[in-house]
Specification:
The protein is of the alpha/beta class. It has one domain: Rossmann fold, CATH 3.40.50. Helices cover 56% and strands 11% of the residues. The chain is built from 11 helices and 8 strands. A 6-stranded parallel beta sheet has the order 3-2-1-6-7-8, sandwiched between helices. A two-stranded antiparallel sheet has the order 4-5. Helix 6 links the parallel strand 2 and strand 3. Helix 1 packs antiparallel against helix 2. The longest helix is centred in the C-terminal third of the chain and has 18 residues. The two termini are 29 Å apart. Bound molecules: ligand PTJ. The site of ligand PTJ has 24 residues, from helix 2 and helix 4.
Amino acid sequence: MTRERLVAGVKAGVTSVHGLIAQGRGEAFDYLIGEQSHPFALTAVEAAAALLLRARHPVISVNGNVAALAPREIVRLATLVGGALEVNIFHSSKRREQAIRSALEEAGATRVLMPTKKAVLPGLDHNRRFIHPEGIAKADVVFVPLEDGDRCEALRAAGKEVITVDLNPLSRTARTATITIVDNLVRCLPLLSERVIALQQLGPASWAKSLSLYHHSRILKAAEEKIRAARS
Ligand code: PTJ
């Protein structure tokens, strides 16, 4: 069913054909972790919820895969954390950027920021450098699921905290982000929204505690160990 969502996304002009390759890569890792949300993912989800709630200006960056896989959940998350939704894609296409915007609006988004030439993320030479002055340019925390390593590094170099979702714990994105949720996007987004609702009620002291329990290198190591154990 998940694969069909991406195929439909390609047909609708939302997802790039490269997105199918990315999905295949993700699926391979998902099989190895048993297609489950493990404790290393749940700890990261908890910390991600806290970081998004603590942020002054959180932004949710949406590419062609995310828009096809989980449009409603991503809009819901942005609403819950009071964050901006911004379209940002690697494989340049004005038509696809508009299709992603429409997909988000159909899923309930009232405001979707688009890439502009008024603001640029330093250190990138591809389409992802074009950002919105009121969105990623101003953000202190950026949620960038299914990301490529270059932009994650550029966002960190620009002083932003980055939360990613990546089934490959060895990817450059997974290693460079502040918080990495090693899980399938479609499984972890509902969990993330649930934790945002729960932590919002508990207040800022609980956010600090959730963040203090997250240790980036330990989380990645636990995910890698799970994958290696599946192979032996
Ligand atoms: O719409 P665009 O042009 O911005 O393109 C988006 C893709 C995803 C095609 C682009 O960012 C890309 O090529 O990404 P990569 O470098 O293939 O990285 C995608 C990462 O996400 C890989 O490490 C995959 O294992 C992982 N991944 C793929 N599908 C999922 C996933 N992780 C979690 N959930 C998934 N469903």
